[in-house]
Amino acid sequence: MQRLRFAVLAAGVFALTANTVHAQGYGTIKGQVILPNPPAKTEINITIDKEHCLSKGKQVPTDILVDPDSKGVKNIVVWLRPDDTNRRAPFPKDKIKPELVKVSPKTHIIDQPCCQFEPRVIAAREGDKLEIKNSAPVPHNINYSSDAESFNVTVQPGKSYAAQQPLAAQSSPIPFKCDIHPWMAGRVRVFDHPYFAITDKDGKFEIKDAPEGNWRIVYWHENGYHKGRAGLLGFPVTVKKDGVTQLDAVTLELP
Predict the structure, then answer these.
(1) 57 phi and psi angles, rounded to 5 deg
(2) Which domain holds residue 180?
(3) Domain count of the chain?
(4) What are 28-66's pLDDT values in tens digits?
(5) What is the DSSP string of the chain?
(6) Is-contact 83 215, C-beta < 8 A?
(7) Residues 109-141: tens digit of each pLDDT
């Protein structure tokens, strides 16, 4: 009789646990970042490798890239964080969709085809790898500095350099630049969860399999957070289960 009671109790606990796990739902977040009146661009004064660097036309800053038709802003990094006023609050691991807890690492490639880094901004997950290519006919330099690894190497034409360490998550952006061509610069942001995205040329982004419930969403540009200090903690968002949470377009306000 005792064995029977124990078996019934165990079955009840298992069913409760299974129902609890099943109760967690996931959804998709979609949005767009726009800038209707982008700042005017000033031509960069090229003083080295002029023949190559100007072979496709004049060089202008590429930090703020706005599509003339959609007004969308490219290279905005967007991510979810807890609905918490503690800026350092970690993303709860138990809220990550199980099949996304561990994934195969990706290799992110930065090229330097014509005196600009492409892409200029990368959003990556901890454990991913980084490789720097030089498809240009002139030497380039990569000066990179993160909490986990720093290097400053020259990459010859047609060659590449692979970072020695996997990318490690950190709360601050990782800067990189070319010391040979000082206008060339970029950033890498690395997360310890999968709920981040980077805007395309139309300023659009999508975060899939986000856990349902109340969160905050952060918009970061290499020149600062959307709305400056007010945007450090992000903005409230409620993720719908088994559906799409379509956000209103955000008009970027840089500090």
Answers:
(1) 115, 180
(2) 26-251
(3) 1
(4) 999 999 999 999 999 999 999 999 999 999 999 999 999
(5) -HHHHHHHHHHHHHHHHHHHHHH--EEEEEEEEE-SSPPPPPPP---SSHHHHTTTS-----SSEE-TTT-BEES-EEEEEES-S-TTPPPPGGGS-HHHHS-PPPEEEEB-TTSS-BSSEEEEETT-EEEEE--SSS-EEEEEE-SS-EEEEEE-TT-EEE-SS-----SSPEEEE-SSSTT-EEEEEEESSS-EEE--TTSEEEEEEEESEEEEEEEEETTEETTGGGGTT-EEEEEPTTSEEEPPPEE----
(6) yes
(7) 999 999 999 999 999 999 999 999 999 999 999
| CA distances to 21, 237, 246, 249 from 161, in Å | 44, 40, 40, 38
Global pTM value: 0.89
- Has residue 133 been placed in a domain? yes
- Which CATH number belongs to the domain containing residue 200 in this structure? 2.60.40.420
Query: Quick check: is 112 in a domain?
Result: yes
And the tokens for 185?
């610069």
Q: Is residue 21 part of a domain?
A: no
For residue 19, being part of any structural domain is answered with no
